[in-house]
Amino acid sequence: MGRCTVAHVLTFLLAGGAWSATYKVTTNANAGVGSFRWAINRANSHAGPDAITFEAALGSQTIAPTSALPDIVDADTSILGDTDVDGLPDILLRGLEAGAANGLTLKADRCTVDGLAIMDFSGNGILLWRADECVIRNCHVGVNRGGGQMYRNGVHQIKLWGAHRNTIGREVSGGRNVIAAGSAAGMRSGVYVANSIGNAIKNNNIGVARDGITPLCDMSEGGVGITLITPAALLPAQAGSDRTGEVVWTGDNLIGGRVGDRNVIGGMQVGIDLCDADENLTSANYLGLGRGGTTSVPLGDAVRIRGGSRGNRIGPLNSDPERGNIIWGDLMGVSIYDEGTEGNTVDGNHFTRRIVGKQVGGILCRDGAGSQILERNSFGGDYSPYTHSTGVYLSDGGQGSRIADNQFLRSVVHGLCVWGGVEGGLGAQVIGNGFTGNSVGIECLKALPSLKVQDNAFRGCWAAVRIYGLSAPLLGRQFGSGEDLGRNRFYFSNQWYIMNLSPNRIMAEGNRFPGGFLDPHVKILDAQDDSSRGVVDIEPQGSPLPTLSSAGALALSGTTALLAGTGAEIAFTLSAPAEVEVAVLNLAGRPVATVCRAREYSAGTQRLYWDGRGDSGLRVPAGRYVVQVGARGPDGAQARALATVLIGR
User: Fold this and answer.
1) Rounded to an integer, what distance in angstroms lies between the CA atom of residue 102 and that of residue 439?
2) Residue 484's CB: how many other CB atoms inside 10 A?
3) Which residues of 542-580 are buried (b: 16+ CB within 10 A; e: fewer)?
4) What is the per-residue DSSP string for 237-267?
5) Other CB atoms closer than 10 Å to residue 607's CB: what's the count?
6) What's residue 12's pLDDT?
7) Residues 64, 226, 114, 47: what is their CA dihedral angle, to the nearest 10 degrees?
8) What is the pLDDT of residue 390?
9) Contact predicate 437/408, CB 8 Å
10) Rounded CA gap, 540 and 493, in Å?
């Protein structure tokens, strides 16, 4: 041995290191030299990296221990069961004769389990107990070696307890695990993560066979796909802590991530369950869809957020539409509930199918859950041949939520439904959403007055907004409030703009209603149609303008111009029939736009809409403008009035 080599070895040994070792399993016997039990014991007794490999002939046999296998307690131990390195498990580990036992228990860091099918154990399939930075890949857990039949383990299929920064699966298809859903009895989980942070669960089939399409069991027989939980039974001082003694919770875990990291989750009652779990990210998964995104897989509630969970995100961290979750839920897309559950974000996802006859299909916020951010999601549309009952439903929950920039498309019956209870919709903001082809765009059953609705677009709905009972949402400016509300756009294709079936006065100033021959009130159901209903106030300054009777001399009164959309709503009252001209001037008095020229109007209150464009057809610059109304009676009498409006951009 050369001098340099000797020096290197001495330095390595003095530092406490050791050479790596490989232990080959050559028999399926329960014990003895060459058995799996023997190989684990040898690896545990050898400090340093170890590899446990298997004779290829064992791929046609079953390893069936007759008692619990030893825990893996030596760091950097790799169990390599993919003997032909094709990304599929070759070794079957079956626990029918093992008694009260887990399939494998890892209590050491940086271990790898690769290429095993683990099934029929009474405990967990794989347990990571305070084991960090481990990898589980190319395994079938609770599933046979072929990946098409379920043989569930008794508790959870994979359980992490106080285990951090582990990876279940890999970014590439070669690392994919096939994991059975937990049993519906006791609502067990495919992957159960408790008191653990920084773990990644990616590119797995959970509840779905190796083909990525076929459910492993009936939806009613499957419990949960993935659970992230801080167990309620743990006192803070008892919660699993890392090796520095820092108390940890379940947070900062990743489910999915990028397009290549998609998990396929289906064939169970709950896809992902977050309970008292904070700041986790779920992105780019197929929930209720097979791999490829074209075949549905039965799934009850796709995601539940509960138990005081905060700061979780369902959807991508950026605006990349490819990284949103596609949720094809049979019962509920995302269900958010319990007091203290707040500050969660559902952003950039696509919600599709539901079972006909169920009440809700997209996002449900209920039972005292607090403020959430629900943004940039799409519901229904041509992508979904089925019908959602409701896109977003606030039922005694969601106070202070922001519901913004979502698209509620044709197959959604109700875009947003607010059932107030005690807190439903309290202080919520509904901003910049598109409601297209819904039966009802916004349904207010008990929407409290602080529900603010602005900058939304309603097209092709039977009723854009429908209001019942105690509801009194703010659809526009409230007289004297000074708030910048309204700017909703009600298109002519709606059968009804606003249906006020309540006795309340509904503030709806500052919105854009189609101009032309049809008075907006024709498509507004309120006190003008039924005296038992409240008024829908779309007039400038918060109250109807007075109507003057003809008394001979022509008079103009109550002339106003109020910002509405990108233009202005102009109103005036004539004391007698007259020919009217309305023009918009800049502050220098030069003409900018002709709104109305030599048009006959009858006595009473009249309204027009200026779209904010000049006579050139271009939008006028932001600034203050003068609206000039001139009237000439049949007898030659004339009247003129001015109003100003501030146009913004």
Assistant:
1) 53
2) 11
3) bebbeebebeeebbbebbbbbbbbbbbbbbbbbbbbbbb
4) TTS-B-TT--B--SBS-EEE-SGGG--EE-S
5) 18
6) 35
7) -90
8) 86
9) no
10) 24
End-to-end CA distance of the chain: 81
Token code pair at residue 515: 């101009």
Residue type, 248: V
Per-residue model confidence as pLDDT tens digits over 507-532: 888 888 886 556 687 889 988 778 88
Helix, coil or strand: residue 449: coil
What pLDDT score was predicted for residue 560?
81
CA–CA distance from 180 to each of 116, 140, 205, 256, 448 (Å)? 14, 8, 8, 17, 44
Q: Quote the tokens at residue 420.
A: 């107030």
Per the structure block, which two tokens stand in for 552?
């001979």
**Amino acid letter for position 199:** N
Which residue, 307, 359, 369, 370, is CA-closest to 333? 359
- Residues 6 or more apart whose CB falls under 8 angstroms from that of 418 comprise 393, 394, 424, 425, 428, 442, 443, 444, 445, 446, 447, 451, 471, 473
State the chain's mean pLDDT as an integer: 85
- At residue 540, does pLDDT exceed 60? no
Q: Is 3.30.559.10 the CATH number for 548-647?
A: no
Write down the H helix ranges in 251-379.
none
Q: Residues, the chain, total?
A: 649
Percent of the chain with pLDDT over 70: 85
**Contact, 201 vs 225, CB < 8 A?**
no
CA 283/CA 322 separation, integer angstroms: 10
Query: What single letter denotes the amino acid at residue 490?
Result: F
pTM above the 0.70 mark?
A: yes
Tokens 């170890």 locate to 50
pLDDT tens digits, residue range 587-615?
777 889 999 988 899 888 888 888 889 98
Instruction: At 504, list the tokens.
Output: 């309340």
Domain locations along the chain: 331-544, 548-647
Task: Return the C-alpha torsion angle 549, 550, 552, 558, nearest 10.
Answer: 70
Q: What's the burial of 490, exposed, middle or buried (CB within 10 Å: 0-12/13-18/19+)?
A: buried
Q: Would the CA dihedral through 457, 429, 283, 379 be positive or negative?
A: negative
Can you tell me the distance from the alpha carbon of 419 to that of 410, in angstroms, rounded to the nearest whole number?
A: 22
